[in-house]
Design goal:
The chain has a single domain, classed as dinb family like domain (Four Helix Bundle (Hemerythrin (Met), subunit A), Up-down Bundle). The protein is built from seven helices and two strands; from the N terminus they run ααααααββα. The N and C termini lie far apart (52 Å).
Length: 154
């Protein structure tokens, strides 16, 4: 296995791991918890999950030059999030990593690609690393929002 293949294997494993951690963070939460916000200018757990996975799906498709119709603003629009729908989004993210990430090659790591709302093209490696960090940040936000929601009831 060459370095690029190892890196792709490792970054895929890290994404699968954070998906599992998101799953665990929302496990057992009802709709009220998934839609609750801790205060003004904050997001509900459901909104965070939709946004983080939307960014990830767009990033993977962008690296493979697959058109995407992501509506980032709609991810933050008021909506009611249900546990089953969020689990389906996590399942879709897992399917993306199984199907799309397996198509990534060493050249995709080096090739500079622009992203919507990001004017400076960066390497595929950059986008993969940036997205992993983005997911980890939002995982922490989900975990904290869960803690605040559960603490308010006591």
């Amino acid at each position: 296995m060459n370095d690029a293949e190892q890196y792709l294997q490792d970054i895929s494993a890290l994404h699968r791991e954070v998906h599992q951690q998101v799953r665990e963070a929302i496990d057992g939460l009802e709709g009220a918890a998934l839609n609750w916000t801790p205060g003004p200018e904050t997001s509900a757990i459901g909104t965070i999950v939709v946004h983080a996975l939307g960014a990830e799906a767009e990033m993977l498709r962008n690296l493979l030059e697959i058109p995407t119709a992501r509506d980032r603003d709609a991810e933050f629009a008021a909506q009611v999030h249900e546990p089953a729908a969020l689990l389906r989004l996590l399942d879709a993210a897992a399917a993306d990593w199984a199907q799309l990430a397996s198509r990534l090659q060493a050249g995709d790591l080096r090739t500079l690609r622009p992203r919507p709302h990001k004017p400076i093209p960066q390497s595929g490696l950059y986008w993969l690393m940036r997205n992993y960090g983005h997911l980890r940040e939002h995982l922490a936000q989900i975990q904290l929002t869960r803690q605040l929601y559960l603490a308010r009831a006591t």
